[in-house]
User: Fold Enoyl-CoA hydratase/isomerase family protein from Arthrobacter gyeryongensis.
Amino acid sequence: MTRVIEAAKDLLAVLEAEPSADTVEDMIAVQALALGNKTAVVVTLTRPAQHNALTLAGWQRLGAVFTDLRDDPAVRVVIVKGAGGRAFGAGADISEFPAKRLGSAAADRYNAAIAGALQAIQTVPFPVIAMIDGLAVGGGCELATACDIRLASSGSRFGIPIGRLGVTLGLTETRAVAGLIGAANLKYLVYSGDLATADQALAWGLVQKVVETGELSAETARLAWNIVESSEVTVRATKQVTALAADPAVTDEHELIRELHAQAYEGNDLREGIDAFLTGRTPNFTDGRIPAHGRA
Assistant:
């Protein structure tokens, strides 16, 4: 169930509080906050006693949540966080592995659920912020890297200590982590089993900003509302073009690049932004048109 909260000022309160039981399904809570016709969504992993480790059902639910949000034209930003204040996420729930992840057929189904969840996050057209307070290990670290931006508290720790477990990294997870920190640092995390500090994660590019624990919710809320109040044309195009830029074969003549270019320079947001700048006022962007390729 998704709970809609009709006040932008309540985002900070939602980030600082535990989600109510009526927002939780299969360990995932979803809360939507409306600002006029725009929406910010908070997705919370809700198994604090298990450091927010996700069962197979939890991974499937996470994928379904982002698949549903992808087609909601009001959504401008999503924040992913963990409940309890000790962990963002500890990845998969190892206690269910004997029944659900042993044997190649069972493992294929389980791994597909994890990959599907990460891909659903990566392919939504709006930004996804990981708000990391505490442990982000294993699949929790991989989940964070699937998001667009990661903010962390100074006491957070990051790692993929799977060498003592005997599982392998999937291709989706490997691309997500190595794309941020490089193949060598990913190998170091796996081979050493060490947990990196927040400062080390910042130096590697795994997180974009580190703040004190008491400042994390406010810093996340500030970034989220800045995104909500920015031009949707700019925000969505930034995500789409950076994804395309990873392919060296893509040029400025790519169809989507040209479509985004036309949308920006023929649309209303640029006119509004220029007028607001020249007259010294806050812009009021309304042009939410999305290119035909934007939902791909």
